[in-house]
Design a protein that fits this description.
The protein is an alpha/beta fold. Helix content is 38%, strand content 18%. The chain has helices spanning 7-17, 20-37, 54-61, 73-83, 119-129, 144-155, 168-179, 198-203, 207-210, and strands at residues 44-48, 65-70, 88-91, 104-110, 130-139, 184-189, 217-223. The radius of gyration is 22 Å and the shape is globular.
């Protein structure tokens, strides 16, 4: 089942998110999401593991039709308060999405894989319900910030004690094992602390810097090959009569 945020964890997450330096980091991350995903206005996206709705709010600003799913009712309550009824909210798990094949143009897993029970199954489900592209955003296993988070969890209780961190290489390996050699592009952001000043902020926008695989947040987009469901059709067959008269 993975980790499901309880009431206190959901409230603590929202409080953590609203700190100025965390919001600044989130803006870098969502800018990377938009640059990689390149969504078209009016198309649809499902935010898998939507949490308190920060990513869904960003998708709405991009002009998308948005659905969100999370296993935590407390997270969904906070998302509803933040966004209202502008999105469709579902309670469920990333490994078993309640949607048909190709239901959305895009699927998004934004710091979701860290907390699911079966990351590979969650990716497989995202690839199933999307028909164009899938964005995967993770906390980088090999970033300095990622190492700090894991070390801090040794000495004090932390939500990151429940998290599984990934690297760019691990993600690519999982994706290839599921869907083969489809187009994949990636970049990272938050190479430097968000309070490092304007120069650091402008440096973060450089696509050359973003190709460094050690930023605290890694974003990856998978471009999918269209999949079509087929069903057998009944073909009527008329057998020949030995006497020469047509039958059937």
């Amino acid at each position: 089942m993975g980790h499901v945020f309880d009431f206190h964890e959901a409230a603590a997450y929202e409080h953590w998110f609203n700190r100025p330096h965390n919001r600044a980091a989130f803006e870098l991350e969502t800018r990377l999401l938009r640059d990689l995903l390149q969504p078209m206005r009016g198309e649809s996206v499902v935010d898998i593991g939507c949490g308190t709705g920060a990513c869904m709010a960003a998708f709405l600003e991009m002009g998308l039709q948005v659905a969100g799913l999370d296993p935590s009712t407390y997270m969904l309550d906070l998302a509803l308060k933040k966004i209202g009824h502008r999105v469709e909210l579902y309670r469920g798990y990333a490994e078993d999405l309640p949607f048909d094949d190709n239901s959305f143009n895009y699927a998004c897993l934004f710091t979701t894989l860290e907390f699911v029970e079966d990351p590979k199954k969650a990716l497989e489900e995202a690839f199933r319900v999307a028909k164009d592209r899938v964005f995967i955003g993770v906390l980088n296993r090999y970033a300095i910030k990622g190492i700090q988070r894991r070390v801090r969890g040794i000495f004090a209780p932390s939500i990151f004690n429940h998290a599984r961190f990934f690297s760019v290489w691990e993600l690519k390996q999982m994706i290839r094992s599921l869907i083969g050699n489809l187009p994949v592009s990636w970049r990272t952001v938050c190479q430097l602390p968000t309070n490092s000043g304007r120069f650091a902020a402008s440096l973060e926008q450089s696509k050359i810097i973003q190709r460094c695989p050690f930023g605290a947040f890694a974003g990856m987009v998978v471009t999918l090959v269209p999949r079509f469901r087929t069903r057998p059709l009944t073909v009527r067959y008329g057998a020949e009569d030995p006497t020469g008269a047509a039958t059937g």
